[in-house]
Each structure stands twice: as structure tokens, then as C-alpha cells.
Write a structure and sequence with these properties.
Layout (H helix, E strand, L loop, with lengths): L1 H25 L2 H16 L9 E3 L8 H15 L1 H10 L6 H4 L7 H29 L4 E3 L9 H30 L4 H14 L6 H21 L3 H16 L1 H7 L1 H4 L4
Parallel strand pairs: 1-2
InterPro entries: Rce1/LyrA-like_dom
Pfam families: Rce1-like (PF02517)
GO molecular function: endopeptidase activity; metallopeptidase activity
Length: 263
């Protein structure tokens, strides 16, 4: 009789976990993936070739400087709400969610070293793939930062990079891996599912970034499975985006033919 009463509860817990995952993703990167899929369909069916299209990140939100700053800052702050949500959902009495996901300062030296190592493994091939995609015509021109800058532009770009790193690595790796393990998914199914999701919400940038981010997701997923820590992944992602956002004007000067959006 006790065993019979446990079965419905087990099914209820599984159903609740799937619903929770669905809601979290619908409020964050799952929604981004859906919009990104619609975007790539629109791009591929447009009369303008993919190579002549562009995608702007961190663009100006207002012609008035103080409003632009305000909108940018609020977007970053509220964008972290989904991270706070998953931390709350993972919190249990006696179980620190930061410790559960390996997002703490217990081993800063190893985390920073691992982050820089992953940056070399991911960053250089990622840039090469992007440039190849631009040359071959299956990647749009990604404009990661505005060319007109104010005194606060670089700090805001650094914060935007941190937000992207936290949202993606805490939700798509830390949270999703934790929940899917609880549901009995095998490690490589989790890694591949997470990597596919990562690639999907980058599809608005073109076909090349989809495959590049899937590969990045596989590497990050394998590292998280091995290390049990999101901190080095956040470090890598943050540094990668800082280099992309802040270094864009310099890269544009070096490779204008590949990086410049069509006029």
C-alpha cells in the first residue's frame, strides 16, 4: 500500500519538474529560441541575401543619452530576473543553490584558469567560424556594440556581457542539467539537448553561429559534467562577450569587408 501511494507522487514530481522547466525556458532563453527560429526563417525567405543582412546587439534605445543609459541598465537588471528565479527554485533548506551549481568563490584560481583555457579553445575557432560564415555567405553581419559611444558605453557593455554569461550558463547549463538529471536523462542526452538549445537562440545570427554555439554548448556541457561548476563557464562567456562587444570597433577596422554591415 505505501508503494502504491508513492507512484502517483513520483509521477506528480516528474510532471511538476517538466512544467517548471517549460515555464523557466518560456520566461527566458526558450522564448529567445522560438523568436530566433522565426527570425532565421524570415531571413532565409527574404529577397536580401543572408550575407547582406545584419543583426544588432546592444543597440541604442533612445536618441537622448540619459534615456539610452536608463533603458540599457534596466534591460540588464531585469534580464537577470530569470537567473534569480532558477536560484530560488533550486534553493532548499540546507542546500545553497550557488554551491549546487558550482557558482561560488571556493576555488577562484582554478575557475579563472579554467575560464581562460576555455576562452582559447572556444574563442579562436569561434571567430574563425564567424569569419568563414561571412565569407561563404551563411552568416549575417553581427554588430555587437554601437559605434557612437558615451562615457558609460564600455561599463554598460561589460555589464551586458556579464548578464549574457549569467543567463546562459546558469540557466542552460547549471539549472537545466540539475533538473534533467533528476528526471533521469543520460549525461550525453542532456549535453546535446542543452547545446541544441544554445544554438537555437543564436539562429537569428545565421546558420554558422547556430553550429558554432552548438559546439560551444557541447564543450561547456562536457566541462560542467566533469567539473560540476558553472563559474569557469561564466568566466569564459563573460570574457568572450567583453572581447566581442568592446573589441568590435577594432575588429571592424581590421576586417571591414567581413564585419561591416551592408549599407
Amino acid at each position: 500500500m505505501p508503494q502504491a501511494s508513492l507512484l502517483p507522487r513520483s509521477r506528480l514530481d516528474r510532471s511538476r519538474n517538466y512544467w517548471e522547466i517549460g515555464i523557466v525556458l518560456a520566461l527566458s532563453l526558450g522564448a529567445s529560441a522560438v523568436y530566433s527560429i522565426v527570425s532565421i526563417v524570415a531571413r532565409l525567405t527574404d529577397t536580401t541575401p543572408l550575407v547582406d543582412q545584419s543583426a544588432t546587439l546592444n543597440g541604442s534605445q533612445s536618441p537622448r543619452e540619459w534615456l539610452d543609459f536608463t533603458y540599457q541598465f534596466l534591460g540588464i537588471a531585469f534580464g537577470l530576473a530569470a537567473v534569480a528565479l532558477v536560484m530560488f527554485l533550486l534553493w532548499r533548506p540546507g542546500q545553497n543553490p550557488f554551491t549546487r551549481l558550482g557558482f561560488d568563490l571556493t576555488r577562484p584560481d582554478k575557475d579563472v584558469l579554467g575560464g581562460f583555457g576555455l576562452l582559447l579553445i572556444i574563442g579562436i575557432p569561434g571567430l574563425a567560424l564567424y569569419l568563414a560564415g561571412r565569407a561563404l555567405g551563411f552568416t549575417v553581419a553581427v554588430v555587437p556594440s554601437p559605434l557612437d559611444t558615451f562615457w558609460w558605453t564600455i561599463p554598460i557593455l561589460v555589464l551586458a556581457a556579464l548578464k549574457a554569461a549569467l543567463v546562459e550558463e546558469i540557466i542552460v547549463v547549471g539549472y537545466l542539467f540539475t533538473r534533467l538529471r533528476k528526471l533521469g536523462w543520460s549525461p550525453w542526452i542532456i549535453i546535446l539537448s542543452s547545446a541544441t538549445l544554445r544554438g537555437s537562440y543564436h539562429l537569428y545570427q545565421g546558420v554558422g553561429p547556430f553550429f558554432g554555439n552548438v559546439a560551444m554548448g557541447v564543450v561547456f556541457g562536457w566541462c560542467y559534467t566533469r567539473w560540476g561548476r558553472t563559474m569557469p563557464l561564466v568566466v569564459t562567456h563573460w570574457l568572450l562577450d567583453i572581447l566581442s562587444f568592446v573589441g568590435y570597433p577594432l575588429a571592424l577596422a581590421w576586417w571591414p569587408g567581413l564585419l561591416a554591415p551592408a549599407s
